[in-house]
Specification:
It is built from 8 helices and 10 strands. It is an alpha/beta fold. It binds adenosine-5'-diphosphate and magnesium ion. The site of magnesium ion (MG) has 4 residues, from helix 1.
């Protein structure tokens, strides 16, 4: 098996607040993983460390072939290009269409060939079931549709890892289920997924590896144990 993410004895603090106190875990290629824990437990911190928005105080973090603790600012774009990131609040550019949102990211990550860009655009919109909304503006879409656009955008560069930080946090339960279903389909098609959530209901319905963050430590846990 190949590891996409490896944390080895990672420490991270903000002032007095020690968020990670020797956290170690691995995410294997092709798997679906939940990162669970209470609000404030450190889920977003773990994800930010993975996409090098933060550096660890101590310990080692390997993502794809990159060591986060040694990554220079110049290398960060190369790491980010290998990752797809989805947030609770979608973070679409509100002043342009769905299509322009995707093209913007493509241009920013080095795409130049117009024909190829068109083709890839259609491909990712198809994956999320939104080809008919290519010309829509974000405000014309439902929350679920906006999150699908964010997922399409995250998939544009065929990431080795799709990271989702509470992607269903702003959605009603039914729409949440549809989004998780979509993330599961994406995983089944070969993309490794890591999703942070504090909603245990979701985990019961959709299977995956579970990593729990508690008191600065990260441990794999079974669903049975989690619910007992
Ligand atoms: N930039 C920061 N400065 C100070 N404290 C922070 C910062 N980021 C996170 N924290 C603190 O670290 C802890 C973990 O935060 P976070 O990773 O956002 O948790 P979660 O995503 O699980 O809710 C919280 O106590 C939070 O207040
Ligand atoms: Mg968070």
């Amino acid at each position: 098996m190949t590891a996409v993410v490896t944390f080895h004895e990672v420490y991270k603090r903000f002032g007095e607040r020690e968020v990670l106190k020797g956290a170690s875990f691995t995410i294997e290629k092709g798997t679906f993983n939940y990162l669970i824990g209470r609000t404030g437990a450190g889920k977003s911190t773990v994800l930010r460390l993975i996409y090098a928005d933060l550096k660890p105080d101590k310990g080692s973090i390997k993502v794809d072939k990159f060591y986060i603790e040694r990554l220079s600012d110049k290398e960060i774009p190369f790491l980010r290009r290998r990752l797809g990131i989805v947030f609770q609040d979608f973070q679409l550019l509100t002043d342009r269409s769905v299509e322009q949102n995707l093209l913007f990211v493509m241009r920013a990550t080095g795409w130049r060939d117009k024909k190829r860009m068109r083709y890839r655009l259609t491909e990712v919109l198809m994956k999320v079931g939104l080809t008919h909304k290519a010309q829509a503006m974000p405000h014309e879409l439902s929350g679920g549709e906006q999150q699908r656009v964010a997922i399409a955008r995250a998939l544009v560069n065929d990431p080795i890892l799709l990271i989702a930080d509470e992607p269903t946090g702003n959605l009603d339960p039914e729409t949440s289920d549809e989004i998780i279903q979509l993330l599961q389909t994406i995983q089944q098609q070969g993309t490794t997924v890591l999703m942070a959530t504090h909603e245990y209901e979701i985990i019961k319905q959709f299977p995956g590896n579970i990593l729990r963050i508690q008191n600065g430590i990260i441990e794999p846990i079974t669903l049975e144990k989690l619910l007992s």
